[in-house]
Write a structure and sequence with these properties.
This protein is 42% helix and 25% strand. The protein is built from seven helices and eight strands. The strands form three sheets. It has a four-stranded mixed beta sheet, covered by helices on one side.
Amino acid sequence: MSNLWTTFVQFVVSKVAHSEKTHLQDDLFEQSDLSAEDGLIFKALCQFVWIQGDLLPLIFDVENEIYTKQGITRSTLKRLEEIDLVVFESDGFIKKGYGKHTRLFYDGKPTKIGFQRNADNYLDLGHVLLTERGKKLALNFKVPGNQQFYEYVITRWFQQGLVLSSIQVDRNRAANSLNYTCSIKE
């Protein structure tokens, strides 16, 4: 009887171990089917991702130096679209249906956005959305935030008339460069 029990336990343990190994291999396959160059481009894109229930890469102007100096260009975005990581749309994307306020997160920290109207507001999301495959892969990359990009987005939103509140403004920068863009909360 103990032989039967031992055999049963070994069988169950081997199935669990095989299942976990298969799941791990699937995760690694998601990453390993990218070439090294494609992986680097996608990782560079991930520094531009904000979160609001979904991962949102905010690519507003593909010609802007904030993106190009990180290797994100029209051609690299087209390449990421070819390998089913992003959807690239020249006309861009917007998210509709916002109330008076919303909150987005960048690098794990919140930025509160206040709109001028009480309802039916929208937010420009730029030219890129992640595919389901891209979202899964982006969750595997640990990418540090890019303070210059953050300030670029905040300035852009401020210029659109949005009221912003954030804890991420770099207090060591020149006093006149960002004081007009948002309030700083402690």
